[in-house]
Amino acid sequence: MAHGTFLDVDPGPVTVRGSLNDPVSSTVVVVVEGFHDELLDQIEAIYRNSYGAYYRVALGMLRDREKAHDAVQEAFARAVRGRTSFRREGSLRGWIWRSLTRVCADELRMLEPRVHAVPQPVEAVEADESVRVAVALLPERQRWAIFLRYYADLSYDEIADVLEVERGTVAATLHAARKSLLPTLEEVAR
């Protein structure tokens, strides 16, 4: 017996298991006699073990719990639907992270005027809000690098895989982001 998630084939006789009360276990798992999809199993394992990291990054980017949850669900649904196009020379986790970055970028484009509103002066805003606003004003690649490094705790190599750039580009991008954030961080530290 094998199991998978979001099967897009007619599976015949099936058993469904899972709970809709918890975002991590709300994935509907379909058990199909004689059907085994190793990649589907790996995607499901990543979902179950790393949902929190994907959610934290999506929440940091979208600033809305429901949209963040929906973005993670959509990223994994895309991974499941597109698993046959996955090239094995890259990391499956990185491939799913790329999917999440695209889902969030699409959502941010729809929210653009609201997300990038002009912030109030630093002294009129709480410290956490000041940093959030400063990060939100970074160029997109720098924001993603910051979130993937500090929210998801990805290595430079993993970030390079997600952003589809060289490791040195990640280092330079993070350096530029930190340099841009330094005045805000110094102001908050006072």
Model description:
This protein is mainly α and 190 residues long. The protein has a domain at 120-190: Orthogonal Bundle (Arc Repressor Mutant, subunit A). It contains 7 helices and 3 strands, in the order βββααααααα. Helix 3 (92-115) crosses helix 6 (156-163).
CATH-assigned fold name of the domain at 120-190: Arc Repressor Mutant, subunit A
Output the radius of gyration.
19 Å
In CATH, the homologous superfamily of the domain at 120-190 goes by the name Winged helix-like DNA-binding domain superfamily/Winged helix DNA-binding domain
Task: Give the CATH architecture of the domain at 120-190.
Answer: Orthogonal Bundle
Report helical residue fraction: 55-70%
Name the helix and strand elements from N-terminus to C-terminus, one letter apiece: EEEHHHHHHH
Discrete helix count? 7
Average pLDDT, all residues: 77
Largest sheet, described in full?
3 strands, antiparallel
Which blocks of ≥5 consecutive residues have pLDDT under 50?
A: 1-21, 25-35, 115-125
**Which structural class should the secondary elements be placed in?**
mainly alpha
Proportion in β-strands: 5-15%
Globular, elongated, flat, extended or rod-shaped: what is the shape?
Answer: globular
How many runs of DSSP E, i.e. beta strands? Answer: 3
Question: How would you summarize this macromolecular structure in one to three sentences?
Answer:
The chain is mainly alpha-helical.
Task: Explain the layout of strands and helices.
Blueprint: E1 2-5, E2 14-17, E3 29-32, H1 38-62, H2 65-81, H3 92-115, H4 127-136, H5 140-150, H6 156-163, H7 167-189
Antiparallel strand pairs: 1-3, 2-3
Helix pairs in contact: 1-2, 1-3, 2-3, 3-6, 4-7, 5-7, 6-7
